[in-house]
Amino acid sequence: MNEDLHRSERGPSAEEELTGSYPLLIECVTDYAIFLLDPQGIVRTWNPGAEKMKGWRAEEIVGRPFTLFYPSDDVASGKPRMLLMKAAQAGRVSDEGWRLRKDGSRFWASVVLTALYHETGAVKGYAKITRDMSERKRMEDELSETLRCLEEANRRLEESDRIKSVCLSMASHELRSPLTSIKGHVDNLLEGVAGALPEKVARYLDRINRNVDRVIRLTTMILDLSRIEAGEMRVDLEPLQLGSMIAEVCRDFEPTARSKDIAITVTPLADVAVRADRDKVEQVLHNLLHNAVKFTPSRGDIVVESGTADEDEVVITVADTGCGIPGDHREKIFEKFYRAPSHVQEGAGLGLAITKSLVEMQGGRIWVESEPGRGSRFSFTLRRA
Ligand code: ADP
Fold first, then answer.
1. Separation of alpha carbons 49 and 53, rounded Å
2. Which of 183, 221, 295, 318 is deepest in the core (most CB within 10 A)?
3. Is 295 in the pocket of ligand 1 (CB under 6 A)?
4. Among 321, 337, 350, 352, which residue has the most ligand 1 atoms within 8 Å of its CB, making it the best to mutate?
5. pTM of the model as a whole
């Protein structure tokens, strides 16, 4: 007995029953438009998903060209025909773009067009599956608009930051040369190049000198900070003898310390060698000693210690018996423009921010221990040579 005959006698097989439900499955789909086109692109079937998405009922659209779903500029550029051609050649083509509903409104569609072939290889039609991606498109558009705004804001910030740095460094340059010249002339007068000075004049000139020093120090710090922030500050690491360098910087501070009756004691363990940048280490020590003298009242003590922290590092400490720093301000004093409350009015809050950067550029760390009313200990590390 022929097998087909046998089958029809015993009714459809389980597999046939399952595949027979296929059109029913398509009828159940409401989130996707699933329909067939003939080789010329005429709509031949229509499912509830297609009606929901595009607004056409089956009796209104079946028999009409699928170009109705495309905006006029797509039709004019031949896009619908092109997609059919590509699907016929490659078997399948996918596309994303604007499509039209029956009422003329637009939605963003994701489309897969699959060619169906006769056994001879000729195209017998196309299966088209369309998904409405308008929500995703809206979110993507919003996201890219937000990103564009952020990039624009960032660009403006960078530009204003650059202008600020240029202005700061130009202003400090322009200030420094006349100030250095004023200081030179005052020094000459004090040294007597124009003859002996009455005591009162010498005293005034001395005050002028000290104030000029303050402004020169401030402009130098502003310049340093703008160089650090612009990434233009370079360090030149070389082997250095620490002990002699510390002694030299401390010697520079002796006159100021003596005028406040402050004793500076240096206790280096030995003249250890470090790998560091001489100018930058001197600047760090200078800033720490400057603060120690400034924040320590008369008859105080300053001790500069150095010793080996471990086999890689040397630690240098500048300790004073000054006003100290309250606990909640201790970490913040390394931020630029930050000043803790104290009896001292002078200062722009830049010295420690610069000091921290200079230490870190040389591979070191800096920290402070302090007890309000009893004094502060600023320590920093340098790499051993
Ligand atoms: P400033 O020019 O204001 O001294 P710094 O950055 O050098 O700027 O210091 C920041 C703040 O840290 C100071 O205003 C002060 O409150 C505190 N400070 C720094 N060094 C000491 C110190 N040795 N003793 C007490 N307070 C200090």
1. 6
2. 318
3. yes
4. 352
5. 0.64
